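Data card: per-record layout.
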Amino acid sequence: MILLDGVRLTLASDAGAVNVLRGVSLKIGKGETVALTGPSGSGKSTLMMVIGGLERASAGSVNVAGVDFAGLSEDELARLRREHIGIVFQSFHLMPAMTALENVALPLELAGRADALAEARKTLAAVGLAARAGHYPAQLSGGEQQRVAIARAFVSRPGLILADEPTGNLDGETGRKVMDLLFALAAKTGTTLLLITHDRALTRRCRRVLSLADGRIVADGRAGRKRR
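The structure for this 228-residue chain is written out next.
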């Protein structure tokens, strides 16, 4: 599902060039659940943005769902995300002027799907929010907003879900319920799940844990194998 080879990202700053990613090579298979950990500033969110096609690598190759990112236009990258990648952010990123139903339907409407609203209703029901379909984000609790965001990420049946600190703005109990839902949906659909987290409990739920430091992968721990 994810294949990176020698990925580097260098950004310009007033102090000179900043090497954010320093030769990351990585292979993640279909259906894997993977936690991405590391200290602040290690490059976790940037790596996820590169995998999601939201940031372009300066060097190396990025291949997601069998598609090589090299040479793809911004429109082609956007189409790839709509078809193959769902993204869940810490701060929900819902459209405030749209109802829960409209937020979930948006990716399908952008793809020209005539059944966008019908599929959105089904997916909202799957996350337990059928009764809240007509509510706007400001009328929903934080946990409900994150469930809407999860429904939006899953509505197009992507092969890959990227989640960046998905429980960061939620209290402990709500966060656990949201993650139960996210893992259950991923297992049911066979979706690959890559999530950034500092939560040890979430890390233990993943079958694989990647540790990033200074723009490099410094550890890759798999279930049943001692982490180095």
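Known properties of this structure: The longest strand covers residues 18-28. DSSP finds seven helices and ten strands in the chain.

See the next section for split statistics.
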